Prior knowledge:
The chain is mainly beta. It has helices spanning 4-7, 28-32, and strands at residues 17-19, 49-54, 57-67, 70-78. Strand 3 (57-67) and strand 4 (70-78) form a beta hairpin.
Amino acid sequence: MLTLDEISHVSDVPVILEIELDRKKVRVDEALEWNVGSVIWLARSAGENIDVWVGGELFGSGEIVIIENAFGIRLTDFNWPQ
């Protein structure tokens, strides 16, 4: 496992963080009815595990949490590159 000292030279490089909560198929007519504030129901809920991707690579996993009025991710496992 890499240490922070071993990767400190790249610690300020920006990367793309991807966290996908769910995917859903909808009909075009349904999507056209959406407005700001519309609620789209998904099959995932708080406490479920999700994958966390950084720069297109699987970085780790976490669980969905609700903090006040927002969703968050609690990281539970890391997949450091070898």
